[in-house]
């Protein structure tokens, strides 16, 4: 697929890496010649230095023949204008990164009236992910599928956890709650487990289930912690604002620490149900003065990775039950090695949204990708397919009659509003939404999961 990416900052660079690795013909446009040179040298892409909103630059980049243009500059208005120019030139689809909260209520207008195919707000999407994690403080990360009806939670098995040394096929017999073990990380190895797979202490496991079943299952395991009520947020940027607004609207007691006086005053006006404090969120005295040691959760969302890492480590050391750090540059594995479990990266969230859209474009026929998440440091993919076929070979056949590829598991099936955790006698039907978890990369249509 011919794809043009305008703006090669954090999101643009992440997209350039993923899309070029998936074999797309990518052209990168950026005003900074050094950035363009770095991308061309690092990946199999073409680069063009210039203004991505310029008609001449877009024509030189081949936008008139492009299937997709992605505008991910630092300016919302420039991104929208880039897409408008691209549509007039002849690009089939356009995606704009739009971050300003003032535009949040206009996204439908952008898509319907301006012809944008997709509008991505990285900070808003990242705030939603943090809010999901805070619903299950025991979990390291939580993703949602099937229209937010099914959650996938990551937990680490301690020696006291009843799942340690248990085979996967024993779980339904031992516990009442209906859950599915989808993926297991053991050291450097990743497994998509079958029924005979035996779980071990220190495994990181991904569990899929309905939200009510997830709560019940964690209670049966004896690891359930009540939903967070009191949350302290360091950093009142866009992500901090979106998270504070969402949490305060759902009854949480939220405090936001912001170091910039003008921004703090603005937040106080925007967040009438939250407490906004002017101060330095990396200052131990300020954190303790705001009751850090009595909080259910601490979320550090400043613009400095190192500050977020250090403050979340400090919060954990004084007993805060759940901590989340915004991190864009530091390695996932390094963070886990120093005890930081839950991190968020807005660039990763945005890239996953866009990659999922690209996969759907590649196969808009009988089964297209609706949702995509990359798990375990991008080593596992969880994809939700929408089945729209009347004569596919797999329709109506039981799963035991079909043969899945190795390292593929069907997590759940959503059929007419009902969640099905499939067994060998279940079938795939037209209209189903099917969630697939796999260590393979690049699946674009549902047929690829079969041998």
Q: Which architecture of the largest domain does the CATH hierarchy give at level 2?
A: 3-Layer(aba) Sandwich
CATH superfamily (homologous) name of the largest domain: NAD(P)-binding Rossmann-like Domain
Radius of gyration: 23 Å
How much of the sequence is in beta strands?
Answer: 25-35%
Look at the structure and give the CATH class of the largest domain. Answer: Alpha Beta
CATH topology of the largest domain, by name, is: Rossmann fold
Primary descriptors:
451 residues, alpha/beta, Rossmann fold, Alpha-Beta Plaits, six-stranded parallel beta sheet, 14 helices, 32% helix, 26% strand, globular
Task: Write structural notes for this entry.
This protein has 451 residues and is of the alpha/beta class. The protein folds into four domains: 2-120, Rossmann fold, CATH 3.40.50.720; 126-221, 2-Layer Sandwich (Alpha-Beta Plaits), CATH 3.30.70.1450; 230-344, Rossmann fold (3-Layer(aba) Sandwich); 352-449, Alpha-Beta Plaits (2-Layer Sandwich), CATH 3.30.70. It contains 14 helices and 22 strands. The strands form four sheets. It has a six-stranded parallel β-sheet with strand order 3-2-1-4-5-6, sandwiched between helices. It has a six-stranded parallel β-sheet with strand order 14-13-12-15-16-17, with helices on both faces. Strands 7-8-11-9-10 form a five-stranded antiparallel β-sheet. Strand 12, helix 9 (238-249) and strand 13 (253-258) form a beta-alpha-beta unit. Helix 1 packs parallel to helix 14 (346-362), helix 6 crosses helix 9 and helix 6 (122-135) packs across helix 14 (346-362). The longest helix is centred in the C-terminal third of the chain and has 17 residues, at 346-362. The model has no long low-confidence stretch (mean pLDDT 91).
